[in-house]
Write a structure and sequence with these properties.
This protein is α+β, with helices and mostly antiparallel strands. It has one domain: Gcn5-related N-acetyltransferase (GNAT) (Aminopeptidase). About 35% of the residues lie in helices and about 25% in strands. Helix 1 crosses helix 2. It starts with a strand and ends with a strand.
Length: about 230
């Protein structure tokens, strides 16, 4: 029998679960530890803005009372950019203090972030809502992905937004751009990212996908059944 999963809005009580899930999927869908050992810093960088400053724009997948996926979104690009500037300065100072205690792989990750990260990330539209998705392995199904995206797009429709973009990681064994094209997204650009080269020799790409909400029909899926 199929068991139900639920898509719902983010709640403050979800914060720790979101941070843990972020770290458990940070290395191409697997735990980030082999790449970067400082899970606290990793979660701060990728989740804090969404959970603390714009929680109303995020959604979670819940199954049997446990969070197994999330979509973190923002429809306030100016606030997001201002926060990112402040956060980059703050985290850089923290990293300088912790750097001597990091292992070689963590130091390599920091060096890549400082010297290559900003150059390898493909361009993205300004003043446009955005999102990113993470799911635990058991929740990586077409139905959960579609339900998450549908919930977020419906939210954007209600807010009167015109466009939305996301940046997705694609590699050999993971569906990527083609999956989002099924939801009406177009690939804006893509670039190869090299931060995983030491542990994953195949090519890994980061793609920017964008959707015009003015010419699309709203989707209104809030929950589905999960096998």
């Amino acid at each position: 029998m199929e068991q139900p999963f639920t898509i719902r809005s983010y709640r403050p009580s979800d914060r720790q679960a979101i941070r843990e899930l972020c770290c458990e999927t940070g290395f191409l869908g697997e735990p980030i530890n082999p790449v970067y050992s400082d899970r606290e810093m990793f979660a701060d960088f990728l989740t804090t803005y969404y959970t603390d400053w714009e929680p109303e724009s995020s959604f979670v997948v819940e199954f049997d009372g446990e969070i197994c996926g999330y979509l973190l979104g923002s429809r306030k690009p100016l606030l997001n950019q201002l926060y990112a500037f402040w956060q980059n300065v703050s985290l850089f100072l923290k990293v300088l203090f912790r750097y001597p205690r990091y292992n070689d792989r963590s130091r390599r990750f920091i060096r890549w972030t400082v010297t290559h990260g900003w150059r390898e990330v493909p361009a993205r539209p300004r003043r446009t809502p955005h999102f990113h998705i993470n799911l635990l392995p058991d929740a990586r199904k077409m139905s959960t992905t579609r339900a998450l995206i549908s919930a977020y797009l419906s939210y954007l429709y209600r807010c009167g937004e015109k466009r939305v973009y996301g940046q997705i990681v694609t590699f050999e064994s993971r569906r990527g751009e083609k999956l989002f094209e099924r939801y009406g997204f177009n690939v804006m650009n893509r670039g190869e990212i090299t931060k995983y080269k030491a542990l994953y020799p195949e090519s890994v790409y980061l793609s920017t996908v964008i959707k015009n909400l003015e010419t699309a029909e709203p989707l209104s899926v809030t929950s589905r059944s999960r096998p």
